[in-house]
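Appendix C reproduces, verbatim, an entry submitted by the partner laboratory led by Prof. M.T., so that reviewers can inspect both the input and the predicted structure.
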Amino acid sequence: MTAKTRVSTDAAPAPAHTFSQGVRKGPIVQVSGQGPVDPQTNEYLHPGDVAAQTTRTLENVKAIVEASGATFDDVVMLRVYLTTRDDFPIMNEAYGAFVEAHTTSGVLPARTTVFTGLPREEMLVEIDGLAVIG
């Protein structure tokens, strides 16, 4: 039986609550929901700018994926949580640019987008991910 291990990196924000940045069990890596937070200062960035928040959030997801020993090409699923439907086209454009630039295999991850409330008022977007190494 493969042990479950915590994934942790200074290249992404420290968890604010009682959870891990990511968890790896065998070849499977689950990244906790990330927001537009600077990993050095733990400050929320880009108020009101969903494109910039999306890019910063994906950079945090990518850093945790890489800390697990995976690459962004190993990401099979990303879940995007938005606070408003009106932000979808702008998020989608920023998301597409980031994902295409960091997916060298040409096979983009699957995605689900959900409209919901988020834990912090300044957060317009949160993203979690699932990677499978190998």
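DSSP finds two helices and six strands in the chain. Additional entries are available on request from the coordinating office.
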